[in-house]
């Protein structure tokens, strides 16, 4: 029972966390970018320290090697002049310096590897941060579009009102013309009473005219003018 409740609570907490992450996704992205940039700055500072130490070691290595070479040359010259005592003293000084030179060479090699690895990591992190910033720009654009869509969705009642108004307009425009309906009814009545056939025969010149025409009016006007 308790295990089931714990599972339900954990599931609810996970869903709540997902909702929070979705609601503040842009803010979280910006925060992660800031954290990544801070880590990148720290890595750059570490790289700068390593390079500085590397250069110091190189200088010390070069100086030590130059001193060894100088003592070797002097010891050789001492042997040539039968001064083995001086050559032995020089050899006694050269031996520990050669050991130190080996240690410094190993230190330089390790520093070289660290610098190479860290520089590669920094370059990779720099590229990823650029990609993150571009992704953040796209995410903001998508979020703005989503907000606009949500606002449009909230205005659905207004859209329904517009649709209803358009439907009413179409109904009004689609209604039959009452005057045309009256004329049609009158024509039907004339057909039933036989008036329509009389009018058609009159228009054909058969029998007397049943109604005045444009020609009749024009003829009367011309006659009155004479």
Can you offer a commentary on this structure?
The chain is built from seven helices and no strands. With about 230 residues, it is mostly helical. Helix 2 runs antiparallel to helix 3.
Structural shape: rod-shaped
% residues in beta strands: under 5%
Number of strands: 0
Question: What do the pLDDT scores average to?
Answer: 76
Q: Roughly how much helix do the residues carry, as a percent range?
A: over 70%
The helix-and-strand class reads: mainly alpha
Spell out the helices and strands N to C.
HHHHHHH
Mind summarizing the main beta sheet? Answer: none
Instruction: Name the poorly predicted regions.
Output: none
Determine the number of helices (DSSP H or I, runs of at least 4 residues): 7
Q: Report the C-alpha radius of gyration, rounded.
A: 53 Å
Question: What is the end-to-end distance?
Answer: 120 Å
What attributes does this structure have?
226 residues; mainly alpha; 7 helices; rod-shaped
């Amino acid at each position: 029972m308790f295990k089931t409740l714990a599972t339900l609570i954990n599931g609810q907490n996970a869903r709540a966390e997902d909702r929070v992450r979705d609601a503040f996704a842009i803010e979280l992205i910006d925060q992660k970018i800031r954290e990544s940039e801070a880590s990148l700055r720290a890595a750059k500072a570490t790289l700068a320290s390593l390079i500085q130490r590397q250069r110091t070691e190189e200088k010390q290595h070069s100086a030590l090697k130059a001193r060894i070479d100088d003592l070797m040359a002097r010891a050789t010259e001492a042997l040539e002049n039968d001064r083995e005592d001086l050559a032995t003293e020089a050899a006694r000084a050269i031996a520990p310096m050669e050991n130190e030179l080996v240690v410094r060479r190993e230190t330089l090699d390790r520093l070289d590897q660290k610098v190479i690895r860290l520089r590669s990591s920094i370059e990779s992190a720099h590229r990823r941060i650029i990609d993150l910033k571009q992704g953040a720009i796209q995410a903001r654009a998508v979020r703005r579009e989503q907000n606009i869509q949500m606002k449009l969705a909230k205005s659905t009642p207004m859209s329904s009102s517009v649709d209803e108004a358009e439907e009413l307009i179409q109904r009004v425009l689609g209604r039959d013309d009452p005057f045309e309906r009256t004329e049609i009814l009158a024509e039907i009545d004339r057909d039933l009473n036989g008036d329509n056939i009389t009018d058609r025969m009159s228009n054909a010149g058969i029998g007397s005219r049943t109604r005045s025409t444009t020609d009749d009016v024009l003829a009367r006007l011309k006659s009155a003018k004479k």
